[in-house]
Amino acid sequence: MSMCQIKIPSCVYAGEGSIEKIKDIVAKEAASKVLVFTDKGVRGTGLVDIVLNELTAANVEYQIFDNLVAEPSYTDVDKVIKEAEDAQGDLIVAIGGGSVMDAAKLCAVLKGASYTIKDLLIDPAVAQKGIKSVMIPTTCGTGSEATCNAIVAIPEEGTKKGIVNDNMIPDYVILDAKMIAKLPKSIIAATGVDALAHVVECFTSKKATPLSDTYALAGANLIFKNIKKAYNNADDMEAKASMLLGAFYGGVAITGSGTTAVHALAYPLGGKYHIAHGVSNAILFAHVMAFNKDACADRLALLCDGVYPELSAKTVEEKAQHIIDEIESIVKDTAIPTSLKEFGVPAEDLEVLVESGSQQTRLLINNMKELSLDDIRELYKKVM
Prior knowledge:
The chain has helices spanning 22-28, 40-44, 47-57, 74-85, 98-110, 117-122, 185-203, 210-232, 237-256, 261-273, 277-307, 316-333, 350-358, 361-364, 373-383; strands at residues 11-14, 33-37, 61-65, 91-96, 133-137, 149-154, 159-164, 172-175. The chain is an alpha/beta fold. Strand 6 and strand 7 (159-164) form a beta hairpin.
C-alpha cells in the first residue's frame, strides 16, 4: 500500500443528546466567551436556542453573528468576520449548514491575522489557526464539519472557489439528529444528495486511498439506504441520524481523497446563478457519473458490492450502472429540479459555463476521465 493520510477533527460527539457535550467542550477549553456563528434562517427555527441554553447552563457568555447570507461570496464572509474581529472570545461555535460552518472556519484562521480572505484566495497556505472551533451541523450533507475546506463565491468570476488549509479542520464536532429533526424535505434532499456526491466522487477519485475508501464506503451505505426514508418520513429519526453521520463520513473522505467533476462543474451554477450547492450537484450528478463510467466502472462496482451485496453476482458493468441508476432515482424521488431552465439559465450562457467549469482544475484533476472543453459542453447541454 502506498503512503496515504486522512485528517479528522480531534473530537467528535454523535448520537442522541450529544448536543449537551458543548458544556464539556467549554470546560475543557476553559472558554469564558463563545463567538456563535449562524444565520437568520437557522436562528429562526429555534435550533440556536438549544445551544445557547447549554452555554447559559455552563455560565458562559456568548456573542451571536448571524448576518451571513446563503451561498455567500468572499466579500459576504469578510463582512461577518470583520464584525467578529473586535469581539472578545476564546472559542467559535458554528450552528448551521455549510456556508455558516465555512465562515466560522475562516474566522478561526483570520481573526487577529495580518492576512485577509483575499490573500487566502491567492495562497491558502498562509492560514494559521488563531482560535479553536466547534461545528454543529443543522443539515445532513455538506460535510464542512469535517473538512479543511471553505467554499466561497467569486462574483467577478461567476464561480466558486475552495480555500483549503489543514488549519481549518474543526477541533470539535457535534452530530445530534435533534438539530435536523425539523429540516424541510427540500433541504434534506439537496444536502443529502450533496453528501452522496461526496462519497461517490471520493470513492471514484484518482486520489482515492484505502483510508478515504473506508469512510466513503461507510458514508455511501448510510446515505444510499436512508436518504429516501429521511425525505419521506419526518419522524424517522434513525434515518436522519444515519444521514448526519453519513454526511460527516463524506467530509472525512474528502480530506483523504477529493471530489471530482460533479463538484467542479457545479461550482459555476452556484457562483453565477446562486443555485443551492446541493441542487447544483444533483442536476449534474448522474450525467457526470455516466460520462465517467467507462473509466471507473470497477470502482463503481466495488461501491455497489459494499452497499448492495445482494447484487454481487451481477457483472461489473451492471453493478456500475446500478449505482448510476440509484443516483438518478434518488434525485427524481426527492423532487430535486434536473434542468437549468427551471432556474432561468439562458442557453446563450453555455460557453460562459464551459469556460468557468474548465477552470476548476483543483477538482477536475481528480476525475478518473479527463474532460475536454467539448466534454464539458456536452454535459452542460444535457441539463440546459
